[in-house]
Design goal:
Layout: H1 2-28, E1 31-39, E2 42-50, E3 60-66, H2 73-80, H3 82-89, E4 92-96, H4 144-148, H5 152-166, E5 169-179, H6 181-192, E6 199-203, E7 221-226, E8 237-239, E9 244-246, H7 249-259, E10 267-271, E11 281-286, E12 295-300, H8 316-319, H9 328-336
Parallel strand pairs: 3-4, 3-5, 5-6, 6-7, 7-12
Antiparallel strand pairs: 1-2, 2-4, 8-9, 10-11, 11-12
């Protein structure tokens, strides 16, 4: 009898040890949580990825990553490889998905189709998915105009509200980055959500000519563009997917510098190619801005509508070349990490590192 009792105690002890080990292991792993909010009776989805070693007792910076046209949050995570940096530097990465792959950037683009045999595809810019997108139930065709009219700013605001309730977020250090159409959306976020977004990082995007931008505070901006971008012309003109008139990358940086009341002339430096055949990058930096809201523009010589250091997610003919001479994630984060909003009610931690 005594032996049986001792065996039971020992088994319970072993079980307790295994529970503790599993708790430690799970805590050490990165965790993904699929979330949704409902906007105008439509469910909007986003994925929250908590870094390895996530601790509810700490406050973490947040980077929102907005995908390009005809993609979703999973595509953005894959092509940027941002999760690697998020684990290393303890960042909560968030991947929202637009309705039917289209962000409402403030314009209603004409819907064009490529005629001929084969599946329907969006023209230009090359954001075809690597796997078929699931359509709505019942075989209905998605109303793509509805995507363009979606209230994406309300979506992102409600998303941040819910994240603040569920996760340990440093609300003074919330940032937004995006590629191409996601980059246009990031600029819109900077213009309209400056009270919640500490800094922005548009990649492969330029300022639309008709955009009105009156942020509530100076907004730090780091831009990355390719000089041979076939989607968003570096020198200005018409964006290929949306038929959207845009100013040049240089004038986009000047516009943000004017908004932030920076010095008139930027300093210039270069990032040299790592090896023969690589891509040199010109860097222009506007300093002397109000509230330290720097504006930095990286122009990759020969680069395309791509994420440096990320995946060549489509053929060069469609999106141009992806530079592997430097890593956009590290460059963007080295800029964002120094920017923060004033603390709300003194509740946020001054440090999340």
């Amino acid at each position: 009898m005594k032996s049986e009792k001792w065996t039971g105690v020992r088994a319970a002890s072993v079980a307790g040890v295994w529970v503790a080990i599993l708790f430690i292991i799970c805590g050490a792993r990165a965790q993904e949580s699929k979330e949704k909010v409902t906007i105008n009776d439509v469910d909007r989805a986003y994925v929250v990825r908590l870094p390895r070693g996530y601790d509810q007792e700490r406050k973490y910076p947040v980077v929102i990553l907005l995908h390009g046209m005809n993609q979703d949050g999973d595509d953005m995570a894959r092509l940027t490889r941002f999760n690697e940096l998020a684990d290393k530097d303890s960042i909560i990465a968030v991947y929202p998905s637009a309705l039917h792959g289209r962000w409402n950037v403030g314009v209603r683009p004409p819907l064009r189709r490529v005629m001929g045999p084969g599946p329907r595809r969006y023209p230009g810019g090359g954001y075809p998915r690597r796997y078929p997108r699931r359509g709505p139930p019942g075989g209905e065709r998605p109303d793509e105009n509805r995507s363009v009219l979606a209230d994406d700013i309300e979506f992102l605001n409600q998303m941040l509200d819910k994240m603040g309730e569920k996760f340990s977020v440093d609300t003074t250090r919330v940032y937004a980055a995006g590629l191409s159409e996601g980059g246009f959306m990031v600029m819109k976020v900077g213009c309209t959500m400056a009270d919640r977004i500490a800094a922005i990082a548009p990649v492969g995007a330029a300022m639309p000519k008709m955009m009105t931008c009156l942020p509530s505070r100076p907004v730090p901006v780091v831009m990355i563009n390719g000089t041979s971008d076939p989607v968003v012309p570096h020198g200005g003109g018409t964006e290929h997917n949306l038929q959207l008139p845009v100013v040049s990358v240089e004038d986009t940086a000047k516009a943000w510098a004017k908004i932030n009341r920076c010095g008139e002339k930027p300093s210039q430096t270069k990032l040299r190619a790592r090896e023969k055949g690589g891509m040199e990058t010109k860097v222009e930096t506007y300093d002397g801005c109000q509230q330290g809201a720097q504006v930095v523009s990286y122009s990759v010589k020969g680069g395309g509508n791509t994420w440096p250091g990320g995946e060549q997610y489509e053929v060069e003919k469609q999106v141009g070349k992806t530079s592997q001479d430097w890593n956009a994630n590290e460059t963007i984060w080295s800029f964002l990490v120094t920017k923060r909003l004033a603390a709300r009610n003194g509740t946020d931690s001054p440090s999340a590192k």
